[in-house]
Amino acid sequence: MKNNLFEGGNVFKNIDGALTRRITRDEIPTTIQWLEKITSLDFTMDKDEEDVPIKWLGTTGRKADSGDLDLSVDENEISKEELKNKLIAWCQKQGIPDDEIVNSKTNRAGWIQSTGDSVHFKTPINGDVENGFAQTDFMFTSDPAWQQSSMLGSKEGSPYRGEHRHMLLSSIARARGYKYSFKNGLMDPETNETLPNGKDFNFIAKTLLGQTATVRDTKSVEAILDFIKKLPNYDELVANAREALGKQGVELPEQYVKIESQQIGTPSWFRRMMNSVNF
């Protein structure tokens, strides 16, 4: 089950199952501080308005526990190979045999694995193997500011995940005649090129949600729905997301319009008309 503390990421396994577990919010800061020591990277200095470090991606530090540690890494600061070598050097200092350090096709019980834009590390919680292990995903990017604003996790108690936010934004973009990607932002659907300001969430908010929207209205599924559920084209905007999420057993709410917003000439009616227009 997802909420079992003893089930974490899925990269490191043996015949008995996962070698990592979920990591609690209390364990996260000290474990990341330990990672900073062995990598010489900073993951905690800059924080968002909720006092969570901006390099902590997804649900890391935002929920009671997390399946893994998702950390933003600027590839202009360090390469995947350089970070991998630092992790290998630490493993060698612990006396771990070379053939047991890096995962292979036939052995996933090692300590390090590279996939796509990430380096995964079987991390001793609080730097002590006696505490068990958490999977750390060092997620590399050439555009850390975008990655850190794009890859937000849902808050405690939310029925939605971070990926659901992207699915909803993609659905709205499609209905508006655009294309949205969590990696590339708002794009031209014909050329697949990112639009000017297409990685600015204030621009994305006004283009996809409406002219009175701000970045705050894009930070969660709940915030997005709260903004668009009063628009006359709500069902069109969420159609693709509703279909995709329905396959996962996740439902989106039905349209809700306050009586005042239907009265022509009222301030809420005017705002609703502005936001329903695709400029």
Task: Spell out the blueprint of helices and strands.
Blueprint: E1 13-14, E2 17-18, E3 23-24, H1 28-39, E4 65-66, E5 69-74, H2 80-93, E6 112-115, E7 118-124, E8 133-141, H3 144-150, H4 162-176, E9 179-181, E10 185-187, H5 201-209, H6 221-228, H7 234-246, H8 259-262, H9 267-276
Parallel strand pairs: 5-8
Antiparallel strand pairs: 1-2, 3-4, 6-7, 7-8, 9-10
Helix pairs in contact: 4-7
Shape: elongated
Strand content: 5-15%
Estimate percent helicity: 25-40%
Largest sheet: 4 strands, mixed
Mean pLDDT across every amino acid position: 90
The count of helical stretches stands at 9
Domains counted in the coordinates: how many? 2
Query: What is the H-and-E element order?
Result: EEEHEEHEEEHHEEHHHHH
Strand order of the largest sheet: 5-8-7-6
Return the structural class: alpha+beta
The first-to-last residue Cα distance is 45 Å
